[in-house]
Specification:
This protein has helices at 15-21, 24-27, 31-47, 53-72, 84-96, 98-101, 109-145, 165-190, 209-215, 225-230, 233-260, 287-310, 325-346, 353-362, 367-376, 381-398, 407-411, 421-424, 427-432, 442-461, and strands at residues 150-155, 158-164, 192-193, 220-221, 267-268, 350-351. By secondary structure, the protein is mostly helical.
């Protein structure tokens, strides 16, 4: 079919060039946003008297029909068109003739594609934000049920101090809560309407940009037409936020993979979210976690692709910017799939509470508390640290825990030990006496959970 811009050309575009240049193969997903933006533009043109009210109504009616036909499958988006903008306009002209040719008055494809991408990105950002809220709800539900599920806390992947499953998952709740805040910030900065900027220097037509902005749900029109058509910061910012989300998911996935191993056995993955081996019948593999971990690098690559594309571009629009769509679409699709599947998988996990508790008991996670016990008895901390270090070494040789040692044996390391040491180094005491804000003690965890529940409810209620 003829290009919408062919008037200045006397030769047909080379087929290889056309295939290289066209974007319909990937930007066809913008059809809804392109039509929505075109409807607002047509209504404004009619209101301003740039076209007649009748023409504006006719265009709006037919654009609505095109949208319905595309979504119903009656009008397929095919590769004969250069891009989604050409598809919509060509079909409009085919249906209503010359009136359809008036739609593009006062508009360039530069500000049109900028609008389409902002509308699409805003919609996807809200969807991802809502997915995150569902994930946060899943994490919080697990926290509520496990304030007394004792387990070892780790540093350097070495058992360090006792904590609870609620406390451990609470760390991820905070990560995803920050992620939600980053998405909110992205939405605030992207929510300015570029339509009316023209190719780069606006237009001589008396457009009402405030009207279009309001119709499309933006906070206001953009204030510089050159920046409007060449800005991809909102995409880069979103992809950076998605990269951080994926990093958090990947860290979480890595821990679940470790916990699911035969060596740990902290959790049991649900069959619906696991796969087997083609040769080893005993295997039950945590594939969802592994794919989330692997796809994180893919989202990072999408971000770096766009950053690299944009780093040397002069103002204003350049065709390089067409390369924003595929990495952005891929990052969005990948993050959405990962968040959704991860949340569903997490809700089906079985936690082996007794295994977790025994791991904490046998891992000397109460060693710090034993040292603190001696400090309370008057032993200088540095001396207490050395005493407990030697005691742990002895326990390892004897295959015992500190709590398994008799008072006589303990006193060989320090006369400060007494019968009350057993209560002081018990798992329950070690955890429950930690009652500073943010610590794993049950009383404080329940207080924090109430704070998080209130925050989550307000976050869900305030969505826009």
């Amino acid at each position: 079919m003829a290009q919408l811009w062919g008037g200045r050309f006397v030769k047909e575009t080379d087929e290889a060039v056309k295939a290289f240049n066209d974007s319909i193969g990937f930007d066809k997903r913008l059809y809804r946003d392109d039509i929505k933006g075109s409807i607002a533009h047509a209504q404004m043109l009619g209101e301003q008297g740039i076209i007649t009210e009748e023409e504006a109504s006719k265009i709006t009616k037919e654009l609505t029909a095109i949208l319905f036909d595309v979504e119903s499958g009656a009008l397929p988006v095919t590769n004969e068109y250069e891009d989604i903008h050409s598809f919509v306009e060509a079909n409009l002209i085919e249906r209503i003739g010359d009136t359809g040719k008036k739609l593009h008055t006062g508009r360039s494809r530069n500000d049109q594609v900028a609008l389409d991408m902002k509308l699409y990105t805003r919609r996807m950002t809200r969807e991802i934000r809502d997915q995150l809220l569902e994930l946060l709800d899943t994490v919080l539900a697990i926290m509520e049920k496990n304030t007394d599920t004792y387990m070892p806390g780790f540093t350097h992947l070495q058992k360090a101090q006792p904590t609870t499953l609620a406390h451990h998952f609470g760390a991820y709740f905070e990560m995803f809560k920050r992620d939600k805040g980053r998405l909110d910030d992205c939405l605030k900065r992207m929510n300015y309407c570029p339509l009316g900027s023209g190719a780069l220097a606006g237009t001589t037509y008396p457009l009402d940009r405030d009207m279009v902005s309001e119709l499309l749900g933006f906070d206001a029109p953009t204030l510089n037409s050159m920046d409007s058509v060449s800005d991809r910061d909102y995409l880069i910012e979103l992809m950076a936020a998605l990269s951080i989300i994926m990093m958090h998911l990947s860290r979480f996935a890595e821990e679940l993979i470790i916990w699911n191993s035969n060596e740990y056995r902290f959790i049991e993955m649900d069959d619906a979210f696991s796969t087997g081996s083609s040769i080893m019948p005993q295997k039950k593999n945590p594939d969802i976690c592994e794919l989330v971990r692997g796809k994180t690098g893919r989202v990072y690559g999408d971000l770096m692709s766009l950053l690299t594309t944009m780093k040397g571009l002069p103002l204003a629009y350049n065709k390089d910017m067409q390369e924003d769509k595929e990495p952005a679409f891929d990052a969005i699709d990948t993050a959405k799939a990962c968040i959704s599947l991860f949340s569903a998988m997490l809700s089906t996990i079985t936690f082996r509470k007794e295994v977790m508790r025994l791991s904490a008991v046998r891992g000397f996670t109460n060693a710090t508390d034993a040292a603190d016990y001696l400090v309370v008895k008057g032993v200088p901390f540095r001396d207490a640290h050395g005493i407990i270090g030697r005691l742990v070494l002895h326990c390892i040789d004897e295959n015992k825990g500190i709590e398994d040692m008799s008072i006589r044996e303990l006193k060989e390391f320090s006369p400060a030990f007494d019968e009350d040491v057993y209560d002081a180094v018990s798992l329950g005491t070690c955890v429950e006496k930690r009652l500073t804000l943010g610590a794993p003690g049950q009383e404080m965890m329940k207080k924090v959970i109430e704070i998080e529940k209130k925050w989550l409810k307000e976050a869900v209620d305030s969505r826009r």
